[in-house]
Write a structure and sequence with these properties.
Structural class: alpha+beta
Largest sheet: 5 strands, antiparallel
Number of helices: 5
CATH architecture of the largest domain: Roll
Number of domains: 2
Oligomer: single chain
Radius of gyration: 18 Å
Strand content: 25-35%
CATH topology of the largest domain: Luciferase, domain 3
Helix content: 10-25%
């Protein structure tokens, strides 16, 4: 949930949005927030009997604060995909660990945060850029309803950030968006391109389909 959405929801309803995390492969819950907590962007703590680690490319755990792939082990984790051994081998570590394909981090208190989907990561001049961070900044600008960031080929940096924007105020300009990003994002994370859309492609449950924007 974007911080701007959580803030607007709290103002409108007086209630706090609490996040949780899971996949079909984890039946589905794995990490949840405490019911007495406030919105901080965390997805929470592992549920009982569940282990969660942030793993590097080699599959070994990373220390608190470092970004890597969220991996889960527990009684609710699948044994594998039915009659699909090759696909199973791609996502399961020895010992029952599931590679989720989501990039995240753990703080010093054991709370987990999602950065983005691994396949959606943008590589700019060798630096990892996570679309969620760009989108969260852009939707904080008054007059912006939704935003989606993708990577596009760039001769100089390998990839560059392109942002698709749905406006709720048609007077919002490309320059306003670029100026806002310049104030709130490190140089290599700033969008180079802005495209306005009337709507963004979404799944049946309302998730933005970045892959449709890349096609």
């Amino acid at each position: 949930v974007q911080p701007a959405v959580a803030k607007e929801w709290k103002a409108a309803t007086g209630n706090t949005i609490l996040q949780g995390y899971g996949l079909t492969e984890t039946s589905p819950a794995a990490i949840v927030c405490r019911v007495d907590s406030e919105f901080t962007g965390t997805i929470g703590l592992p549920i009982p009997s569940t282990e969660v680690m942030i793993a590097g490319e080699d599959g070994n755990p990373l220390p608190a604060g470092q970004v890597g792939e969220i991996c889960i082990k527990g009684p609710q984790v699948m044994e594998g995909y039915w009659q699909r051994p090759a696909e199973t081998a791609e996502v399961m570590f020895p010992g029952g660990w599931l590679r989720t394909g989501d990039i995240g981090r753990m703080d010093d208190n054991g709370y987990f945060y999602i950065e983005d989907r691994k396949k959606d990561m943008i590589l700019v001049s060798g630096f990892n850029v996570y679309p969620n961070e760009i989108e969260n900044v852009v939707v904080e600008l008054d007059g912006v309803l939704e935003a989606a960031a993708i990577g596009v080929p760039d001769e100089r940096s390998g990839e560059a950030v392109k942002i698709f924007v749905v406006r709720k105020d048609s007077s919002v300009t490309e320059q306003q968006i670029l100026d806002h990003c310049r104030k709130n994002l490190t140089g290599y994370k700033r969008p180079r391109l802005v495209e306005f859309r009337d709507e963004l492609p979404k799944t049946n449950v309302g998730k933005i389909l970045r892959r449709a924007l890349r096609d």
